[in-house]
Design a protein that fits this description.
The complex is a heterodimer of chains A (241) and B (218).
Chain A: E1 2-11, E2 14-24, E3 29-33, H1 40-47, E4 55-60, E5 63-64, H2 72-77, E6 79-82, H3 94-104, H4 110-123, H5 139-151, E7 157-161, H6 169-184, E8 188-192, H7 196-202, E9 205-210, E10 213-219, H8 220-225, H9 230-239
Parallel strand pairs in A: 3-8, 3-9, 6-7, 7-8
Antiparallel strand pairs in A: 1-2, 1-4, 4-5, 9-10
Helix pairs in contact in A: 3-4, 3-5, 4-5, 5-6
Chain B: H1 6-44, H2 47-62, H3 65-78, H4 85-110, H5 114-122, H6 127-157, H7 169-180, H8 183-217
Helix pairs in contact in B: 1-2, 1-4, 1-6, 1-7, 1-8, 2-4, 3-4, 4-6, 5-6, 6-8, 7-8
The chains are: A alpha/beta (241), B mainly alpha (218).
Chain lengths: 241, 218
């Protein structure tokens, strides 16, 4: 579904991604972790072309992300992305947040889009808030809306960029629950997160990054039971308390 | 000569204030269109076009409006283009207003977090859609107060058009003074008329600022 081959990226002299290669198969859940500044957020943003890269190739369902003849907007419309800071559109109501791209990008009609939006809001438990504005919701609620907004586009895969790290602790689980449910339904997911409980529960594989490199790319059990690199052992020791 | 009553003078000034209002409106609308068009170009065109737009706004912001009016009114005829004071004043003020508005609005667009562009892009919106549907509606809220504030400057700046022979409020005031020799009364009335045009705008911009302050506090 998603293949990342030998991807490198520089900011001027500084190399943020160093020959990263991995793949996410259909229905697979891959968790990307690593210390801050390791390049994991940059990597996930290269997948849908939000960050450019200078070397290598990324393909989604066979379509190259940075080929000149690729319709990047169209490609992105099939790949959901959830951001650390939610990035709901503050000038629109919750329901309008969910329908905007359905109407303007997918060309669905108003009823269809609203219908879909309300069903997804119900699914994340926020149907009662459809008429409110983002600022009126808590962080956890906003992030659930953001997930629903992505799902409204019927994505073939979902990318999560630290979806819970801007949340107060008591709100983390309500977001993780939605993600777990998605994973269990077979959604293809790539998640940058420090939530190792989530990784243990639903991930198939765990990728560990450091200094722009993919240091480990292992099956989940293997990674937690038996991390190969010193750096991953250190990281796990710190994060698992 | 001295049989002009105060009312006669006020009437003459009021009539000429129409031209100040009209010139201001032309500058608002024309400058708004120029500013808006250049804003879109600045946000989406290549580096060369962007540099040219920057140069344009630097030149108009870095030279006195009076010089721009002189160049428009006396300079264009030297190139073989005849211009009336009307045309010279309208075009110059439009370009002057546009040069400021494009910068004010660009600042407002840049104040919107990059994540909003990214979120819109990740939903498959084109660059134009991101700007039009997501960024601009948010930027507009921040832009209203400084825009209105700048328009007050424009209203006052139209006084300079009197120097190239455009008969608006200030010009009418000095013509009247030459006729009746009562500069204090006449220029007081001229100032009062400018105030009457500008005050509603500044008041409105303050209301908007307060509203925006509340919205941010929320």
């Amino acid at each position: 579904m998603i293949s990342i081959e030998n991807v490198s990226k520089w900011y001027g002299q500084f190399q943020v991604l160093n020959a990263c290669s991995t793949a996410v198969r259909k229905g697979e859940v891959v968790v990307v972790c690593g210390p801050s500044g390791s390049g994991k957020s940059t990597l996930i943003k290269t997948v849908n072309g939000l960050e450019a890269f200078q070397q290598g190739e990324i393909r989604i369902g066979g379509t190259s992300v940075d080929a000149p003849n690729t319709d990047l907007s169209k490609l992105r419309s099939h790949v959901g992305m959830v951001f650390q800071h939610f990035e709901l559109f503050p000038h629109l109501s919750i329901l309008d947040n969910l329908t905007l791209a359905q109407l303007k990008v997918l060309g669905r009609n108003k009823d269809e889009a609203a219908d879909k939006g309300l069903r997804l809001l119900e699914r994340v438990g926020l149907k009662a808030h459809a008429g409110k504005f983002p600022i009126q919701l808590s962080g956890g609620q906003q992030q659930r809306v953001a997930i629903a907004r992505s799902l409204a586009m019927d994505p073939v895969a979902m990318l999560f960029d630290e979806p819970t790290s801007a949340l107060d602790p008591e709100m983390i689980n309500e977001v993780l629950d939605v993600m777990v449910e998605l994973a269990q339904e077979g959604m293809t997911m790539m998640c940058v997160t420090h939530e190792m409980g989530f990784a243990k529960k639903v991930a198939h594989r765990v990728i560990f990054m450091d200094h722009g490199q993919i240091v480990e790319d292992e099956r989940k059990d293997e990674f937690f039971a038996n991390p190969k690199s010193e750096r991953a052992r250190d990281f796990l020791a710190k994060i698992l308390h | 000569m001295n049989d002009f009553t105060i009312w006669d003078m006020a009437q003459g000034l009021l009539l000429s204030a129409r031209w100040t209002v009209l010139l201001s409106l032309i500058a608002f609308v024309g400058g708004g269109l120029v500013g808006g068009l250049l804003l879109v170009l600045r946000l989406s065109a290549g580096a060369k076009v962007q540099a040219m737009i920057r140069l344009y706004s630097e030149i108009f912001q870095g030279t006195p409006l009076l010089m721009q009016l002189f160049l428009g009114f006396f300079g264009l005829p030297m190139l073989g283009i005849e211009v009336s004071p009307w045309l010279a004043a309208s075009v110059t003020l439009t370009l002057y207003t546009g040069a400021y508005l494009v910068d004010i609005w660009r600042g407002c667009v840049e104040a919107i977090p990059r994540g909003q562009w990214q979120a819109a892009a990740s939903l498959g919106m084109s660059h134009g859609q991101q700007l039009r549907l997501v960024i601009w509606p948010q930027a507009m809220r921040i832009a209203t107060a400084p825009t209105v504030g700048f328009l007050v400057q424009v209203v006052k700046s139209t006084a300079l058009a009197s120097i190239i022979g455009f008969t608006e409020l200030t010009k009418a005031g000095s013509m009247l003074t030459n006729a009746v020799f009562q500069p204090f009364i006449i220029y007081s009335m001229v100032a009062a008329l400018y105030f009457a045009m500008c005050f509603p705008l500044t008041w409105y911009s303050r209301v908007l600022e307060r509203k925006q302050g509340l919205a941010l506090k929320r």
